[in-house]
Design brief:
The protein is α/β, with parallel strands linked by helices and about 375 residues long. It has helices at about 10-15, 65-70, 75-80, 90-100, 110-120, 165-175, 200-205, 215-225, 250-255, 255-275, 280-290, 300-310, 320-330, 345-355, and strands at about 30-35, 50-55, 80-90, 105-110, 125-135, 135-140, 155-160, 190-195, 210-215, 225-230, 240-250, 310-315. The chain folds into two domains: about 10-135 and about 240-355, 3-Layer(aba) Sandwich (D-Maltodextrin-Binding Protein, domain 2); about 135-240, 3-Layer(aba) Sandwich (D-Maltodextrin-Binding Protein, domain 2), CATH 3.40.190. The strands form two sheets. A seven-stranded mixed β-sheet has the order 1-3-2-4-11-5-12, with helices on both faces. Its main location: membrane. Keywords: Cell inner membrane, Cell membrane, Membrane, Signal, Transport.
Length: about 375
């Protein structure tokens, strides 16, 4: 199950490719349809469905759905059932869409998944698989911050109050002895919630001194003079922590398990293709991110290359790290201690993994049994 990071083949290939666009990953409240991703449906319908509606973000940490759509791997598994994608800029909006039936399956960060599950008292969603690990860094202005000891009195951006990176930064600062009010962001360090698409400009203008952000925003900050002071991988056992999960509405899972299984099989096969075709995967990711419905802006190889290499695709949802991330949110005062028992249903994923000759994954005591 280990998350496998595309390594040496990528570096050489990237130098030879003029790579396309990648999203600056903003955070808003609306989803956009992605018509370019709708590969023609052919063959028998899965579970008798006309469509399966999926949701994801337009950034590097959602490489699995982006690349899978670009390469037609999701449509291949669903046959005559059309894939209907929607692109989101924020976790809460995606949870709302899942709850309303606007999407059936989504890729999302751990914090909104936890919040969605707990607010519904365990009735809205299930985490059914992993997607990505890593891809988050603390990038600083090297003229203002030379070491981690220099953070006191500085302004550090995170994407959104209570989002996964916000919780991670608050937890890190607390462990280092800094006092910060989680809600206001004020204290020994100022945590300034800033949309990822705005963060590079704020960084260049000196409005922030650093940022704890996901890819590709972290790589973009480095490309304009920032320095990676801390890779969040270094804070986790074996360098692995969940950054993107797969979720499904419980209603859809109960009514259409064959469709869910088909999407999981597409995800697993997409991840395998990414690992075995790293250079092609980078290009496919950029081709999809360059779509006007997602970003429409091309980023150079010195941004997309490091961003892709810093993000690991994984079938394993890394359940133990989700429990830890929930504990961090509780300690920060952003979440009451949640009951996460039953948040995972990994039965279909493990069925797919067995058929693919891969090891089963574990729910760390947070599954149905």
């Amino acid at each position: 199950m280990p998350a496998v990071r595309p390594r040496h083949p990528v570096a050489a290939a990237l130098a030879l490719l003029l790579l396309g666009a990648v999203s600056a990953c903003g955070y808003g409240s609306e989803a956009r349809k992605d018509p370019a991703a709708e590969v023609a449906a052919k063959g028998p319908k899965t579970d008798g469905l006309d469509t399966v509606k999926i949701g994801f973000f337009g950034n590097v940490t959602h490489a699995t759905p982006l690349i899978g759509l670009q390469e037609g791997l999701f449509q291949k598994e669903l046959g005559g059932t059309a894939v209907k994608p929607s692109v989101f800029n924020a976790g809460p909006a995606e949870i709302e869409a899942l709850n309303s039936g606007a999407i059936d399956i989504g890729w999302i960060g751990p914090s909104p998944a936890i919040n969605g599950y707990t607010k519904s008292h365990g009735k809205s969603l299930k985490i059914i698989g992993g997607s990505a690990s890593g891809g988050v860094s603390l990038v600083v202005n090297p003229k203002k911050v030379k070491s981690l000891d220099d953070l006191k009195g500085k302004k550090i951006a995170t994407p959104q109050l209570g989002n996964t990176q916000d919780v991670a930064l608050l937890n890190y600062l607390a462990e280092k002895g800094f006092t910060v009010d989680a809600t206001t962001g004020k204290g020994d360090v100022t945590v300034q919630r800033t949309e990822n698409k705005v963060t590079p400009t704020a960084f260049q203008q000196g409005a922030i001194d650093a940022a704890w952000v996901p890819e590709p925003t972290a790589a973009k900050l480095v490309s304009i003079g920032g320095k990676t002071l801390l890779d969040e991988k270094d804070l986790w056992k074996d360098g692995k922590f969940v950054i993107t999960n797969m979720i499904v509405s419980q209603k859809f899972l109960a009514e259409h398990p064959k469709a869910v299984e088909a999407v999981l099989r597409a995800s697993v096969r997409t991840n395998a293709w990414i690992r075995s075709h790293p250079a092609e995967a980078v290009k496919a990711l950029n081709d999809k991110l360059a779509d006007p419905q997602i970003s429409g802006k091309a980023l150079p190889a010195d941004v997309i290359g490091p961003a892709f290499k810093n993000t690991d695709v994984t079938d394993d949802p890394l359940a133990a790290t989700l429990r830890q991330e929930a504990d961090h949110a509780v300690k920060a005062g952003l979440l009451q201690k949640p009951d996460l028992k039953g948040i995972y249903d990994l039965r279909l994923l493990n069925k797919v993994l067995k058929a693919e000759g891969k090891r089963p994954v574990d729910a760390a005591g947070l599954g149905n049994d």
